[in-house]
Write a structure and sequence with these properties.
Number of strands: 22
CATH class of the largest domain: Mainly Beta
Radius of gyration: 21 Å
Number of domains: 2
Structural class: mainly beta
CATH superfamily of the largest domain: Thiol:disulfide interchange protein DsbD, N-terminal domain
Order of helices and strands: EHHHEEEEEEEEEEEEHEEEEEEEEE
């Protein structure tokens, strides 16, 4: 069992980030990009095909190779940090899907500040669908504008613009099969009762702290479990705990809506990360209905309760 202390609110998170970025800079000047910075994180744009067929859906991704002891951030950076940003661009007629995030990990930074993201190596991907009338042998240029924050004892922003040339043909030609398969398995999937089922109790009562409980029943006892709630600027989470005993995991936390803030929806997306009995680290998506009395200001009409279901996805809690 592990207890997570109170996290910073959005303002506190900004102050923490500001301090971590600026305090070392008066000595080292690390706010200026230099050649050494480029060795900390190296990014490359890749695809799982080299030839694209008309109407085909394929996958592109930015692979980050990260220097030991450094890390970059998940879509919700936690108590401190900035999310990694990738904007994929494709020719007219192509459809680009949403960014797909592998299950994150937790980092404890100076000042006992927790954040989450990735270290060593990560591939952030998106699905792209080609038009059905794609001309044969036409060149295909895929581009990506990328921004990230790399941190160890200090934080340094990084960015880059990357392009990839593919070709069009009658039949697809695969590429980088092993790499894309490996990282596809690390992207959280919809909750599956063959692996785990969930029961969620709790309701958000205006701006007063409200208790929530998530009970997970596993088909096979996991080695470890973590819970990563998504970012909700209007919501303050506190007293997070994760306890696992045998095949049952119990996640408890307190939530309250910040005064004057509007919830973005009636549910909180999250990821349950777990290590199975073979030691593989996996993730499942879990939506936590907040059942709020109101989503907007106190004068707004009551929102209907959202069903307990799984959807794609603050500080995480774990039982490690």
């Amino acid at each position: 069992m592990r207890t997570i202390p109170t996290r910073c609110g959005n303002l506190g998170r900004l102050f923490a980030l500001y301090a971590l970025l600026l305090l070392p800079l008066g000595v080292s000047g690390q706010n200026k990009e230099n050649d050494n910075d480029k060795d900390i994180v190296k990014a490359a744009l890749l695809a799982d095909v080299s030839t694209v067929a008309p109407g085909q859906t394929f996958t592109v991704g930015v692979r980050f190779s990260i220097k030991h002891d450094w890390h970059i951030y998940w879509k919700n950076a936690g108590d401190m940090g900035l999310p990694t940003v990738i904007k994929f661009k494709a020719p007219d007629g192509f459809t680009v899907g949403e960014l797909r995030w592998p299950t994150p990990m937790e980092f404890v930074q100076p000042g006992n500040i927790a954040a989450y993201g990735y270290h060593d190596d990560v591939l952030l991907t998106a699905k792209i669908t080609a038009p059905k009338d794609l001309p044969k042998n036409s060149p295909i240029t895929i581009a990506a504008d990328v921004e990230w924050l790399m941190c160890e004892k200090v934080c340094i922003p990084g960015k880059g613009e990357y392009t990839l040339q593919l070709s069009a043909g009658d039949a697809p030609k695969p590429a980088n099969d092993t790499l894309f398969k490996e990282w596809d398995e690390r992207v959280p999937v919809a909750i599956n009762t063959a692996v785990v089922s969930a029961r969620i109790d709790g309701a958000l009562h205006s701006t007063e702290p409200s208790p929530f409980t998530i009970v997970l029943n596993w088909k096979e006892a996991p080695q470890s479990v973590e819970w990563f709630p998504d970012a909700e600027p209007a919501l303050f989470l506190d007293q997070l705990q994760v306890r696992t005993k045998g095949t049952e995991t119990r996640v408890t936390f307190s939530a309250r809506r910040l005064k004057g803030q509007n919830l973005s929806g009636a549910a909180l997306s999250s990821v349950v990360a777990y290590r199975d009995n073979k030691g593989n680290r996996r993730g499942v998506e879990l939506t936590v209905p907040l059942n709020p009395e109101t989503i907007g200001p106190a004068s707004a009409a009551p929102a209907s309760a959202a069903p307990a279901s799984a959807t794609p996805s603050t500080r995480p809690a774990s039982d490690r």
